[in-house]
Amino acid sequence: MSFLRLNRLVITKEGKEVYNEQFHNGINIIRGHNSSGKSTISNFIFYVLGGEFNTWLPEAISCDYVIAEVTINGKILTLKRDVDEKRSRPMSFYYGTYEESKVSLFDGWTLHQYNKSKDAESFSQVLFKFLEFPEISTDNQETITINQVLRLMYVDQLSALDSLMRNEDFDSPNIRQAIGYLLLGTYDDELLQKQMLLRQRRKELAEIDKQLKAIEDVFQNSAFEFKPEKIRQEKQKSEIALQKVLDELTNPPVEKKTNQETQKQLEVLRAALVTKKVQYAKVAETIEKVKLDILDSDDFINILKEKIDAVNLSINARGAFKDIAVSYCPVCLEKLGEPEDGSCHLCKQPRTADSSDSKVLRMKLELEMQLKESKSLLDYKNLVVVEKQGELLDIKRELKVAQSNYDVFINQSRTTTESFYDKLLEDKGRLNADIKFFDKELALYDSYAEYRIQKESLVSQISTLDDTTTRLQSEQKSKSQVAFRVIEKYTLELLKGDGTYERNFANGYNVLIDFYRNSFFLDGRNRFSASSMVLLKNCVRFAIFFASIELDFFRFPKFILCDNIEDKGMEEPRSQNFQRNIVQLANSDQFKGKDFQMIFSTSMISTELDNDTYTVGSFYGDDNKSLKL
């Protein structure tokens, strides 16, 4: 259940405010003659909330910045984007009101790019956290952004009449379907996580199957033995034979006689031994250093988690106690007088919009980013330890061989019995090679056995995940049926309120919404007169909006922006009738006391709606454009 409200929109040019209007909860109507700048204001609202827009009119592109103070789920923040013809512009955040943001041009502002990166969150990710939206990717790994979400919240003039959502370049049916599921609240968070985990586990299983097949091919097409017990027996025989050779070399049966050639070989063996010892010491030292760093990282991560828990506790406590009225003075215990409307119970000062919740949430977002970066660094350090331990094992094995070579050679020298020693050294080298080969065979078999264990575990996990996702999909389907039934109810109610302009509307009985095909149908058809198509599209879009107010499980943030109330030859009485119908429905008893915001523009405002309760700004015309350039 999410809620988004635009509190104020400010547009600047060369440091001057050329538009500055406050919006209110409920109904907001921007009215004026055609070509007076109503659509420009609508496009600016779409853009500053995160929409992708760059087809500005000359008057609009001459502006510098568009700024919006918004309330998202009770948190106040100010958004700012520079006006540019380039796509994918970043967004600046100030965690407080617009008036507070004007105190400093830089302090307190944070900049987030359009696209996310490894080290920084995109502005869509930040807004999704405020909206309490999960991050969703399609089966093709396409990511949903705030721009995609706004496609269902903004009814613009340029999209095709039969398009359910705002048209987008390189449109993807999977993205549209995911947007629909997200905003209707039928996309279950748990189902999302399970499906993502299921895809990951299947990917891991495919990789393990590939590794198992590769190892099996090695055993079948090479000299490797596939029976570990037989390998160990052969290795043991070679080790016994090697020890016998070493004993004969260490205790030579003939008198040793050292010559210059022997001394030279001894120096070579000594140098090789020293090199391996130095390598071993360096790698061991690196491992110990990284392990100490890991301990420090673990401590830091725990501290960050404790801080995040403390911030969450602070947010919950503030939400629970901030509206408690104080009836008695805590100093003298005398009963306090009744406060004036909007004043503090204790100090009697007027209560202003509190942005501290937003600042606390900003602190939480920064801590979460630090936690994410620290975990990523910890994973890297653990990987370094694993790699260095493997490297240390290889060096240790090589060091053992170098030490053995040196120990044997230092106790023997080449004499007239060179052929005898040559044979022993040749046997020693061969036996060492055999043992190393057996070790590789055993290591390969151990890897094979480990992969088999992992495969069995993954198969079990996949089976459980399959069952869980099937159950959750069934629950999702049930929730979807409720959502579409309520949308159909409001669509038909608004269509029947159209009167006699379109006979098929009055007799309509079935409404179908197809996010995947980006279309909608009334009784199986979506071809009517142009003006009737405008009305049908608006009825469907406003029906989704009204359904989000009625059904708590909707994520659609109870916000709609419509710049297409009349178009394609729409007659004035028909447009005004639709305006009255949506306002009447919004003011009905079922929606009283509920937060929502409806913003629409019209050049044919109904007389009874043209008052300060509903309108924003003045009536725009040729001599009074929306932008005061």
From TrEMBL:
This is Rad50/SbcC-type AAA domain-containing protein. Gene3D superfamilies: P-loop containing nucleotide triphosphate hydrolases. Signal peptide: none annotated. InterPro entries: P-loop_NTPase, Rad50/SbcC_AAA. Residues 22-248 form the Rad50/SbcC-type AAA domain. Pfam families: AAA_23 (PF13476).
